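ASSEMBLY PREDICTION REQUEST
Request ID: AP-0331
Submitted by: J.K., bench scientist
Number of chains: two
Total residues: 293
Priority: normal
Notes: Please return the full assembly, not individual chains.
Input sequences:
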Amino acid sequence: MPINVLLVDDSKAMRSAIKKMIHISGIDVGEFFEASNGKEALALLVDEWIDVILTDIHMPEMDGLALLDSVGRDEVLKRIPVIVITTEGREERIQEAFGKGAKGYIKKPFTPEQFKQTVTEVIGEEYAVDAQADLEGSDF
Amino acid sequence: MPSTLKQILKEVTFEILETMFFALPEPLPDDGGLLPGLVFDLRASVALGGRQNLALNLFLPKPLAADLTASFLGLEPDEIDDGAVSDMAKEMINMVAGNLLNRIGEQAGFEMGIPQAVFGKRTLTQETLAENKNVFICVDDQFLMLSFSREDG
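STATUS: Completed
Returned structure:
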């Protein structure tokens, strides 16, 4: 079953790179939505059906930790799993993200295989993986 | 640059090039061998702070920067513009610095700033090589250079 993904990162380049990695990983995506900070993400979450949120931590206006706070306070939105994607490696910051409700953590750089493993752990194998897509059959 | 720090810098940059850019980097000797006269067209930098107020710099020739941008973003080379190249360089230095600090920074009190990228030619001189402060990496017969500088210098 395809999933709708909300990608939150202030860098357009990084959003493109992550989208490419998702494609290579074989995860079956229905629609991609993009936001450049937590505030834009919350606006999208009001109008769109989102199955998983992938967010950076360091962003202007509203960072990833504040987004986790807002999502966690909302009875409807808190059903949506949030995975943090960041270069941040400090243990206390990672634990802070999990404490605010993050369901997964991916450290940049990452391989498509690592990405797929984390996403499938968080949202479930049957939900995430496109039977037609296979990493072994990828051109990359 | 201390040899341990150079080694860590090489390791994190190799990992990033291999995983996020699908590149096959090769190490070079610290003095770069045949490198004097090499021209770089783009510098990305990020402040690291710390007691010495350091910044980490990445120097790239434009053809290599364009190749890396195409790989990173999943675009064809003719779809690449200067803005995309600049964004790629900022993301690359951000990942290199972030992973470097993950390995050394907590003890040293470093704190990363916001990455920047500027276009401008810089020719590698023998004097720069002699300082032995740089890390060189070869990708597809092209070269990138990493160096530290003081933010106020």
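REVIEWER COMMENTS: The helical segments of chain A are 12-25, 38-47, 64-73, 91-99, 112-123, 125-128.
SIGN-OFF: pending second reviewer
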